[in-house]
Amino acid sequence: MKDLTDIPALMHDIGLRAKAAARELAYAPAERKQAALIGAADAVWANRAAIIEANTQDMEYGRKKGLTDAMLDRLMLDEGRIRGIVDGLRTVAEQPDPVGQVMTEWDRPSGLHIKRVRTPLGVIGVIYESRPNVTADAGALCLKAGNAVILRGGSESFHSSGAIYDCLVEGLRAAGLPEDAIQRVPTRDRAAVSEMLTMTETIDVIVPRGGKGLVGLVQREARVPVFAHLEGIVHIYVDKHADPVKALNVILNAKTRRTGVCGAAECLLIHKDVVDTIGQGVIRALVDAGVEVRADATLHTIEGTIAATEADWGAEYLDSIIAAKVVDDADAAIAHINRYSSNHTDCILTEDDATADTFFEQIDSAILMRNASTQFADGGEFGMGAEIGIATGKMHARGPVGAEQLTSFKYIVVGDGTTRS
Q: What pLDDT is attached to residue 384?
């Protein structure tokens, strides 16, 4: 029985075991990793009743903590969402194994043949909040890429994450892979997070997935390299060439489908020429859908809106709230986005190719969209099966982080008694 009160000793032991497992995983056959993920998927489905029961405990804990409805929605699991977890595990299982893939190769006049091949990162620490499905997503993607992973979920999802984690271990066991390849920090004690951030000898990279507070803490205190998953301050710009029907459908979906996900629209920018046509209808539809629209002076004349303040530009609500503003043209929209965006996901609604091209050229967010709901900002929707997060930085990985993004590379150099003159 582990001593859960001695956090440094607990985390040191977890780190050493993860490092040992990573060495074995680095050359594990693709077939065994695939089998482990299929076994985990089968176990999740077979144990869905127990997972839902564990989630019921977490939901009650979350309500007592005063989580918002949007945050409770992120936490909640039902049979449909468990089916989504199972499908994600199976999709990752069936993807090509990235480890050992030849990225490029070439010959040199010296006679050397050089290849750049994908290789695992090693041990990945994932620190996340609320969403228990991240347990499966992160575990699956790290395993597929040949990495060991240490999972530290949020206190709200403690029981759900534990039940899903047990299924991942069942898959590892059945496939004959080291059970330490996927480990879960078995305590809610926040000292475990601080400990992970300094484990430079055993953890190769930290992936924080959560709100601005968590990501900021990790970026400030980590001595281990970090893939930052920053907040989603997501903008939609309605251009003067936007199609009214597409605009209405996309905006309503982007805001209301699930308000607590990082791809939910948080700010609406409307070209001044379409305020009386598209703008009026969209704002009224949002209000009718129960969205609190925090509008600038022009749009505040629409019944049901409330006046925006400066704090609303650049806000991530993760709730049924959206900021709305009129802009003079596409250049003004681009300037606003470049000032307030978190470089996560931004969207333009337009039928004009030249305007869309300018938008794509002049905004440097990880994901840029045209005439599509920002709720598609998701690794599963990109065909990755799942994601470990959406990286908003520019080093190593950017955008949805799937299995391929969880690899590095090495050079294989082959000669034939070749010497350098």
A: 79
